[in-house]
Amino acid sequence: MGPRILILGSGPDAPQAANWDRSIFDHIVVINNAWRVRSDWSHLIHPEDFSADKRPATVSPPQKIITADDYVTVQNTYGGFVYAGGTMAFTAGYWALGALRPSVMAFFGCDMMYAAQGNTHFYGTGTADPLREDISLRSLEAKSARLALHANAQGCSVVNLSDAPSRQVFPRAKLADIRHLQTTPPPPSDVAMADVLGAEKSLGYFVASGRYWESSAQFDVDEIDRLDAMWRAAYLPS
Predict the structure, then answer these.
(1) Do the beta carbons of residue 97 and residue 90 sit within 8 Å?
(2) pLDDT tens-digit profile of 131-169?
């Protein structure tokens, strides 16, 4: 059985995780500023433009920093950023799938819902990835469905520990359920997965560097919307 992983984002509710029992999780993967929520994280993942002054001053072994040099290669094995989605929450999920091989992957502070007024993140206001005009973020629901289906195909359950409104379509779970969560979720339909993966392959929307925004002119948003609809249809009936 693979490890149980918490992926912690910077949503307004993230501080609720500050005192959770660490023994529930084998790894805690924190995204960007979420390392400030608790000091016992195992992996910090951040993009290239995450400024040095926002990073922890010290890192205690065996803690690891995960950068684009690490996650681009892994995410490419799952089809690349155009299909997988350009938020760090999804990037963290795919990286964890490839690098840590979990049996349970639980998200918190990653609901990607942003108030028009007041704090957007636990530390105040910040720039939210999903609010960018970005070809990979046209349907966050589809991107979360895609991640869950890839995870389920590897025998990994993906859940959302939040009870707040969310753009993620993962099933909800309580913290107390994690130790006993079913770790062998039903695999996705072979036909549905084959169809949508075949559609992705036929488009060939892949940029090895991960910098898909530098080649955005080559992508047809109508085709991306069609793929998103296929991923939603493949996952939501389950």
Answers:
(1) no
(2) 456 888 889 999 999 999 999 999 999 999 999 899 999
